[in-house]
Amino acid sequence: MDDLMAGREPDPSAALALKVPVEAAKPRWWRSVTARRYAFGYSLLTPAILYVGLLVGVPFLFSLYLALSDASVGAPVARFVGLENFVAVVQSGTFWVALRNSLIFTVGAAVCKGLLGTSLAFLLMQSFRGKKVVRVLVVMPFTIPIAVSTLGWKWMLDSQFSVINWALGQLHLIGAYGTDAWPVWLGQPRLALASVMFVNVWRSFPFSAIVLMAGLTSVPPEIIDAAKVDGASFRQRFAKVIVPMIAPILLIGALFDTVFTLSDISIVYLLTNGGPNGATEILPMLAYRVGIQAGALGRGAAISLFLFPLLLPAMILLLRNLRRREW
Prior knowledge:
The chain is an all-alpha fold. It folds into two domains: 2-31, no CATH class; 84-326, MetI-like fold (Orthogonal Bundle), CATH 1.10.3720. The chain has 16 helices and no strands. Helix 3 (33-67) crosses helix 15 (297-305). It is flat and about 70 Å long. The model is unreliable at 1-5 and 15-24 (pLDDT under 50).
């Protein structure tokens, strides 16, 4: 300032000295608001990343290691064999039967649960006496331990003491007790697969109804009333208004249901153990039989990994559709 008052040129060193405190006061990048925001976000994601990495990623990599080796229960050292296990699995006729049964089981159960869950959700959305009691009774199959409920169904589907056959006989829909007209639910191939599918639907369709009810309650009533005023029927309101609005919830529910159904081994194991003659053999059951019961760990791991390419396209399509709807 004195140089300017005296008519002299300012000293550059003096200007540099004036800038040093300003630059020193500037916060570091790791102390900025953006860096703190990113750090806080990643800290919230850390538990989920650890869960996926430890409880999902590590078992998957270990299964892949077993599938690429000749690991077995009796061999202390596993030898790398490449894709031999996968080739042997594909060349087995039992694998293709299990794959066919898995697809029929998953698709058939998904369709039935979708229809029953939708009907039940709209029914429970209505006002009537005892609504809370009905909701508790409907959700009960999903909360009962799977072993208890499945063994109960195994008794009801018994070839000699079936309560279902007795009730059908009393209604004169089948023959009387002791006749050959009684169906053997768990002993005939087609009936066995249908019975296993029925028990899976009975246990899981309340979950579909709960998911749909959660979506229906999120739809503003004003939009439904506006559609009614425009003359839209119930089917048009459901297909053109409700479904597009609750599509993310439906897609996530469908994804979880597909994974749970395709990997469901408990019901098959407790009811039929894969029989009769492989009629209810699904991929998880075949992997358990080969890898655990027979002791061929590598071959069983290869069979179980075939579930991954079956689920991956469905997950990609559902998640891509969900992302498009969010945009």
